[in-house]
Write the structure tokens for this entry.
Amino acid sequence: MTTNKIILEIRAGAGGDEAAIFAGDLARMYQRYAATRGWTFTVLDKNETAINGYKSLTAEMKGEGTYDAMKHESGVHRVQRVPATEKSGRVHTSTASVAVLPVVEAQEVNINQGDLEVTFSRAGGPGGQNVNKVETAVRILHKPTGIVVGSREERSQYANREKAMDVLRAKLYEIEQQKATGNVGDLRREQIGTADRSEKIRTYNFPDDRVTDHRLGKKFHNIEKIMEGGLDPIMKAFSVTQKSL
């Protein structure tokens, strides 16, 4: 599939506060990478922590070739470093899971409006009086599957509902594709894993200044530059691998 709009989901995994901080680091890495590619990066929903991290974050990325470039990011990412909260200098291992879903057109997924439970609330955080006093945040429950999606970053209730429906359609489309090819549960675990430390597609080792992609079997250095959005060497390695297949 080739699409120029994706839903990006990042969730903190094993590792407590450090996992949430790492999830935030990944979100900023992708946001900065999007800027280098001229893509837009729009946060739709987030569950922030008090330590400048995220328990979860959902964003929309839009621009030429977003899905082809980002599809390899789905899976469990593992970080090895000394957390800022660690007083004895020990290296900790934490994880965060990433899911990349293509945004599909409304006609590609049939959604019965009677299957939806839509609720509205005030959107917290910065944004002025309109954001804080009007119930613009939208949460949608798809009752047959139990999937819950939301959007709170747009300024109007209508815009947030449309963004939330984009996320829901992407998730339901993924389920339909998985049903066509095999067990949904197994395939979902294959894509995003269980966020256990032993499941990983990539390891970010700060003490050794090394990022290892376990699918490519390649190591990349200058980890600080990569975390600042310098993903091009990894993306190019995947592109070369695809062309050789």
Observations:
- The chain has two domains: 5-104+184-244, 107-181.
